[in-house]
Amino acid sequence: MPSPYRALFAAPGSKGFSAAGFLGRMPLSMMGIGVVTMISQLTGRYGLAGALSATIALAAAVLGPQISRLVDLHGQRRVLRPATLVALAAAAGLLIAAHLRWPDWVLFVCAAGIGSVPSLGAMVRARWAAVYRGTPQLHTAYSFESVIDEVCFIFGPIISIGLSTAWFPEAGPLLAGGFLAVGVYWLTSQRATEPAPHPREQHGGGSALRSGGLQVLVATFVATGAIFGAVDVVTVAFADERGHKSAASVVLALYAAGSCAAGVLFGLLRPGGAPARRWLLGICAMAVSMIPLLLVGNLPFLAVALFVAGLSVAPTMITTMALVEEHVPRAHLTEGMTWVSTGLAVGVALGSSVAGWVIDAAGARAGYGVPAVSGAVAVAVGFLGYRRLSRPAPVRGGSVEQHNERAERHVA
Fold first, then answer.
1. Which of 60, 210, 383, 386 is such that its CA lies 20 to 30 A from the CA of 248?
2. φ and ψ at 12, to 5 degrees?
């Protein structure tokens, strides 16, 4: 590992919370695609599979920011453990209902319950921010976490799809639940690095989403998430049509591998210029990279096209987190990061659902029109909101930070 990344772990406890976050994030790439694989194997209905995956993502979009807001108020340990128990119980219900062929509405209720899964990526990034806030190491830390995200997306689909196709249909989602339980309970046991909560009297009113810059990021990432959700579902169906369904995991892993490689290199740089400009260029690159998918005719070409498409993902996500840290008050940081994930989750829900219906109606190849259109929408929204991101952010924390300082002096 290059020295800037090695230097990150000089901070006490950083290895432990980063490792726990890695395990806890594996379900991010395993659960949705695992449900798609499981349901398509048990029923052959890609529309239902995509709709269930979309339900999980939409429920996470509704519940995730509220859970993270509670974390900002009360701390990670007090909130994450009960939220995870709810998600695990719902996941168990979904697997049982699918196995026993219970009515579709039961599947949707359980899928909605899985949405209470906490955003482990935001929790770990909040710990890095507490350690390295205001230093160049924070850029490297965010880059490292984006690489970890992509490592999860490299191995998660391989494990989930591979187990569900080679062992039994429910195997992928079952292992995802195990990773979630271990990751969350390991992370929350590490109290020394847990960011200090901001009690309600110090927290200020309103939501992190009141920030104009954050609104632009979230809106744009709805369209960006649609790219990811559609690509996952369509790639599984594309490989299935060609008689190599298990190969979908390898193809999707190459998509993540391209992003991982770009993220590693980006973390070694100290990019200059305005972060908003770099972010918009990244959104444009992601959109353009979807065009070749419309021309795919075989799995090798698809694999190459997705690897190239992945090169723009991690740098864009890294810059996004830096913009969140710049535009959102410290007392709302975990919530602000989760809102970005929420935008992605809503987009994944829309993209996977629409792609599933397009596949059922016109075949897998036509489904790649969904990520192409989604990319164009992301560019349009990004350009419309660029001024909000590029204008100087207000002094971070404002009266909330001043109130915090007064409260700390009072306690002292």
1. 60
2. -60, 135
